[in-house]
Amino acid sequence: MSVDCTYFKPAGVPTRSLEEVVLAIDELEAMRLVDVNGLYHDKAAEQMGVSRRTFGRILDTARKKVARVLVEGMALRIEGGHIEIVKQRTFACSECRHIWNLPFGTGRPKSCPACDSKRFRREVTT
Ligand SMILES: [Zn+2]
């Protein structure tokens, strides 16, 4: 994901007099997946490669930050906004022990690329 807009502030207020809230890129991504794309939490968590619990925490933090920015008229900066995020998911085959990586957003692989077995699982690295 790349982000073009990385700084938001209330119009007509000088930046130096604004308090700034920093939104991490994964927090923005969590909001994008759920609030913009309408994904369920479990699907969104899978796409981001985190547990549902972790995802819920990220989303909760993100929403609280954005709500505060709007309600209290603060500036919002997105951290790491110019960085193209290329996260990998790791899968491990239970048959041949082959381990391979796939970027997010490409869906779950159908079978192990080495032995074609369907008995593989996601390695959780977080
Ligand atoms: Zn295999």
Automatic annotation (TrEMBL):
One Pfam family of this chain: DUF134
Membrane spanning stretches: none
HAMAP family xref list: UPF0251 (MF_00674)
PANTHER family: PTHR37478, UPF0251 PROTEIN TK0562
Family under the similarity heading: Belongs to the UPF0251 family.
Annotated protein name in UniProt: UPF0251 protein Poly41_09080
UniProt source species: Novipirellula artificiosorum
Lineage of origin: Bacteria, Pseudomonadati, Planctomycetota, Planctomycetia, Pirellulales
